[in-house]
Write the structure tokens for this entry.
Amino acid sequence: MENLQGLQGAEVAFADIHGQQRAIRFLKRILKKETVPHAFLFSGMTGVGKYAAAMELAKALNCLNPQDYDSCGECGSCHKLQEGLHPDLIHIGSDGVLIKMDQIRDLMKRFRFRPFEGKFRVVIIQDAQKLMELAGNAMLKILEEPPKANIFILIAAESQMLLPTIVSRCCQVRFQPLEDEVVAQWLAREGGLAPDRAAGIARLAAGSIEKARWFSEEDRVAGWKKVVEKLENLDGLSILDFFPMVSGWAKNRETAEQDLEFIRLWVRDLILFRVAAAQNSAGGCDAPLTFELNGRTKEAARSVPPERLFFLYHNVEQAMQGLKVNANLQMTLEGVCLAIKDSLYGKGGWNSFPKRGQNLPF
């Protein structure tokens, strides 16, 4: 569930939602026309302000003293909506893993009555991609024959995760990843981080406040350093050492998705370094890198065609998508690590036996 009240602090208006100017301008144009669609689909990665914008839209629609097609933030309606006490604001989220049919049935019962206080009843459905099949079909029927004075705001990571028929009945609003500067400012302001550390974490967060908050926890730094160490040690790792290493790594499924995110960012650094080095006669890289690449990694990256690194990046993204649909974790990590080892170091990167002094694992 995405709840980013901390991103804007004490939110009072659209203007307080940072980094989403295009989406906010679009919503204000709709309010100006006074022909509000009955359903919206807010899509974009977690932690970029979709929920905050949904709340501000609900406030603007029911504000008693609207200003410049925005809420005043001061009237009774605005205060009730901000505090979650307005009778015409309905939140629906997943009950366990999915949004269930019973939740949609309960919602439909509310449509027997007109909004109690506001001009509109606003229904916010978070993680709308979790609508189970029956619930999704029921939601589709509601959107096909929308009850009067009801506005639906569906929030999802990607529109492709929903039924195409549901998407086609919604006004789509795409939310972009936040600029690193916006994320860094939030970390400095809300988290009290030093500017240098905030900037480094902002690059890791890939435009998401939620990820930035997660990365700012102290043990996360040690986590990504361990992942990078594993990747750097792939060079020269023997076949007999490789599979036990991956097997041990795969035992911690809780961090697997985040570990793959670290790998994706590391490969991104390789691409930035490779492209910049090709353009720089000194062979360096002026682009800001997330991780500090060691000498052997830099040497290997310089000799690899950029196309191979782009293909490797694509492989990592596919692996991340596979985990979301419960792909086998060990096989996924094996595939990614094999691709990195062969792409960077080639077949010659394999040693037949473990390093001298080590015992064979059998």
In short: Residues 256-279 form the longest helix (24 residues). The beta strands are 39-43, 89-92, 121-125, 150-156, 171-174. The domain at 217-349 is CATH 1.20.272 (Zinc Finger, Delta Prime; domain 3). The mean pLDDT is 85.
